[in-house]
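Hi all, long-time lurker, first post. I run a small reading group and we've been trying to get comfortable going from sequence to structure in the token notation. Rather than ask abstract questions, I figured I'd post a concrete chain and ask someone more experienced to write out its structure so we can walk through it together at our next meeting. Sequence below, copied exactly:
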Amino acid sequence: MTITQETAPQETEPQGTGCPVAGTFPFSGSSYQGPSPAYGRLRAEQPVAKVPTAGGVDAWLVTRYEDVRRLSADPRLSRAQACGEGAPRVGGTMHTTPEMIISLDGAEHARLRKLVAGAFTMRRVERMRDNVQRVTDELLDDMAAKGGVVDLVQQLAVPLPLTVIGELLGVPAQDLREFEQWARAFATVDDRAGGEASLHALGKLSEYIVGLIAEKRANPTDDMLSELIAARDDDDRLSEPELVTFGFTLIGAGFDTTANQLANSVLALLADHPDQWRALVEDSTRIPRAVEELLRHVNLFATDTSGFPRIAAEDIEVGDVTIPKGDAVLLALASANRDPEVFADPDRLDLARERNPHIAFGHGMHYCLGKHLGRMEMEIALEGLTRRFPDLRLADPDAELPWHVGEINHTLTSLPVVWGA
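-- Answer (accepted) --
Happy to help. Here is the structure in token form:
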């Protein structure tokens, strides 16, 4: 199997940045199999390094686990300033708007997060388990009926989280595919066009959700969006723009990341670690721990960072380096999850790994709200695949797999698989 590199190689060496071990960010060599080799050198030699970016500005890149984890929770690193007018454009990162929850700081962020967090508690997510199981079973039934070569991306990885998020928001099934196209475009990094395609998709999502909110207000149903509307109308807690923004944020974050993580994880097992696939087939009780290791090991982000730059609101000392106020900062989650100071033999996929404090979902105020739901979808999907298709394998192990180009995530276009004789 040939792995196509989704992120264009960056060969330019930094000038005057004090970072001779890397190049222009985003670095070449990143894939679903792991972050660019440059991160290992940076962790060892310059764990806090100033690097040039494809956007034309320099940014501080943080690569060690303890530093990334601590700075993820540091209120002196501002997402709001990174999204404000005149903020430095860091190339290779995702464009967000100031009103999104991922773009807020302090009390504003805490208020909005508190209002929506109740929808994603472990208890609430567990109540969704039967529904997620039903959706998964239906998709796998259809897969079994088709037989032959099946595209696992379009058969399972995309429709499972898309359907779950759609039902969570009360989106009609016939509209889900349009949602998928907008969410894909929104997750695209488009530095040359100034993010125009991403912003256009954001506008389409917003327009749709405005109409959906109006429909849910007139005819409320048993879904999360109806609940949030009722809370806002009764208690004046969520404004109309906040409802709209939360809706499309949930679609992008709750659908796209889960779809990519699931597809990439299955690819890693089938293509690179068939022995570990067989171990899951033999004992499904290993799956929850396996999901945690897949989240740590399988690289979701095409830039190896969270994709969201921050701005230092004041001088910040990290080790023997001072990050000056106003400078852009990037936190390399994929590098942190391969730090040998925290993870034994970090480049090895070990589905039985016991100590696994990965930060695939982030950390601090901006950790992923949907982490419980994402974990559950991964567990149910893997359990269903290993139980019903124990001899699942790539249709053509030597074929070159197609990837979307320019997305914030490593995104497979298709993953052809077969099973049986």
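A couple of things your group might point at:
The beta strands are 48-52, 58-62, 77-78, 150-151, 310-312, 316-318, 321-323, 328-331, 393-394, 416-418.
The chain has 16 helices and ten strands.
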